[in-house]
Amino acid sequence: MRSIWKGSIAFGLVNVPVKVYTATEDHDIRFHQVHGKDGGRIKYDRVCQVCGNSVQFADIDKAYTSPDGEQVVLTDEDFSKLPAAEKHEIPVLEFVPSDQIDPVLFDKSYYLEPDSATPKAYQLLAATLERIDKTALVHFTLRQKTRLAALRVRDGVLVLQTLLWPDEVRAVEFPSLEDAPAPRPQELKMAETLVESMSGDFDPSEYTDEYQIELQKLLDEAIASGTGKVEPAAETEPAEQADAEVVDLVAALQRSLEASGRRDAAPEKPAKKAAKKAAPRKAASKTAASKTAEPKTATRKGA
Q1: Which of 67, 73, 138, 270 has the smallest CB count inside 10 Å?
Q2: Residue 195's closest CA among 257, 265, 248, 246?
Q3: pLDDT at position 243, please?
């Protein structure tokens, strides 16, 4: 890995020199656009709409257009005048309980490596965060933009996770949920049973990106064929799809439990209904029995 940033964490009067590394990487297969007719690669040219000339990246500035159509052009010098944290400092603002940070706020993750011959201050901060089970809120300036970030520990290494600002998270307003009926107790009980049957410890290595695997297989087969194109697949009959809307939710949950191996988990209420239906049969049997016994009873009375 190559560091993308160097600086220090300001932990009170303690200075913790660090190097910053991107913690994640994208394994998606990359494509480029080509002309479908002859396979020629498509190129893009930055052309000025006023003079019609190609413009080099170094000569490009940023512009803002107001809702009224007014345009303002800003240069790198203009951006440098804006308030921002020290470019090479990560100041700790405060420590907060880790469970108070909503996961929806998390954005990008970065690893921090000690950038000192004696990383004692780094180890002290990491050990402290682990002991107190809290997350440090910090300011982090990257590419001329100051971000709010969470500083925590993962496997003994300090991890910086940039956070979205509160106004960047959309408000949840779904009218369809306002008048939605609450689930029935029986549905909740069966759903909880289904969750229990599907529960386990999280192990990321158990999950694979099947889409990327199949895509790579498709590309390898096309390369092996020597044509540079994917052979058309044989036609297959469309698979039967389940109904889009489940009418009987309890029945769907029961089928799910049976598919998961919990065939012994039968719903309670349907059993009671079955018992009620069975009751008339018993009554009918008693009636039939009484009718059969009628002549004997009549004979006794006559005696």
Answers
A1: 67
A2: 257
A3: 52
What is the pTM assigned to this prediction?
0.68
Q: Which helix (H) or strand (E) holds 22?
A: strand 14-22
Q: What percent of the chain has pLDDT over 70?
A: 80
The pLDDT tens digits for 33-81 are 999 888 899 988 999 999 999 999 888 999 999 999 999 999 888 887 7
- Alpha carbons 56 and 46: distance in angstroms, whole number: 7
Query: What are phi and psi for residue 223, nearest 5 degrees?
Result: -70, -40
- pLDDT higher than 90, residue 234: no
pLDDT (tens digit per residue) in 113-172: 999 888 999 999 999 999 988 899 999 888 778 889 999 999 999 999 999 999 999 998
Q: Tokens 């965060």 correspond to what residue?
A: 129
Q: Which run of H or of E encompasses 114?
A: strand 106-114
Instruction: Count CA within 13 A, CB hemisphere, residue 291.
Output: 6
- Using left for φ > 0, alpha for ψ between -120 and 50, and beta otherwise, residue 204 falls in alpha
Q: Residue 171 to residues 18, 51, 178, 242: CA-CA distances in angstroms?
A: 36, 44, 15, 33
Produce one character per residue of 48-77: b if its CB has 16 or more CB atoms within 10 Å, e if not.
eeeeeeeeeeeeeeeeeeeeeeeeeeeeee
Residues 64 and 72: their CA atoms lie apart, in Å, by 5
CB 89 within 8 A of CB 8: yes
Cα 196 from Cα 218, distance rounded (Å): 38
Q: Report how far residue 151's alpha carbon sits from residue 130's, in angstroms, rounded to the nearest whole number.
A: 11
Torsion of Cα atoms, 225 then 231 then 235 then 239, to 10°: 90
Strand duo 89-97 + 5-11: pairing: parallel
